[in-house]
Every structure is written in structure tokens, then in C-alpha cells.
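Hi Q.,

Before the meeting this afternoon, I wanted you to have the zinc ion prediction in hand. No need to reply - just skim if you have a minute. The sequence and ligand are here:
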Amino acid sequence: MSDHNCIFCKIIAGQIPCTKIYEDDQVLAFLDVHPVSEGHTLVVHKEHTCRVDSTEPLAMARIGEVLPKLTASIQDAMEADGYNVLCNNGFSAGQVVEHMHLHIIPRKTNDGVFKQWPSFQYPDGRAAVIAEKIRKNLAL
Ligand code: AMP
Ligand code: ZN
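Predicted structure with the ligand bound:
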């Protein structure tokens, strides 16, 4: 299913142009128009879903199947040392386009992109409480 208001569905349907990297019957990868680094690529499943948690496991698996080849090809083409694979889910996480997509962002040592990963330490006992809450939901 596609969503008539979705910009990525329009790209998939060929109604809006993109710079295509890869396409098969289920998956499309194309360059981000506002890249974080050269070669910044977006990977989408052709079925419209908003987030990872609303996407069929098999659709996620199909993306997973092409990801190793795609990331290696992008890294090598850009002569990068590494890459980030990111997926923003929800407004609070920075998702702007509501069609589930992975970002592949080629990285070079000291490129200054994402300089700092904010992190903190759990106080004593807190990690166990949180892990238990999540495990309960998994069991549903
Ligand atoms: P997100 O914040 O994870 O939803 O990221 C959406 C990404 O889509 C941004 O990095 C945009 O630059 C990118 N984007 C938006 N419109 C287009 C388009 N027409 N073609 C390629 N990339 C796009
Ligand atoms: Zn869509």
C-alpha cells in the first residue's frame, strides 16, 4: 500500500525524481537531497509504513538482506572509513518524513559529523528496572 500524501511513496511511484542507488521489487535506495555527508543514502521499503514498529518483520528483513552490500558499496565508493545506519522514528526522534527509512551516512575519521553522542550512567538498580519493563512488553 502507498500513501498519496507521502513524498517517499511518490518517489517510489516515479512521480517525483530521485537519484537512485538500488532498486528491487521491494526495496529502493536513493541519495538524500540534503546530505550530512557525500553519499548519504536513504533506504525504504516500497510498502508505506511510518515506523519500524509498524513495519512487517519480513519487510524489515528484506531491507536487512540488502543492507550489507549497500553499506559496503557506499563506503567504498566514498572512500569512507565507516558509516552510520540511522532510523528516526517519531517526531521526538527527529523523523520528518513519515515513511520508514534508514539513513546510511558515510563517515571519515575526524569528519566532525555527530561529534558527540550524549550519554549518561544509570544510577544503581535503574537498569534492572528498565530492562524488566521492556521484557514485560516483549512477552505480550
Ligand atoms: P528524517 O528526519 O529521518 O525523516 O529524514 C528525512 C530525510 O529525507 C532528510 O534527510 C531529507 O533531506 C530527506 N528528503 C526529503 N525529501 C527528499 C527527496 N525528495 N529526495 C531525497 N531525500 C529527501
Ligand atoms: Zn510512503
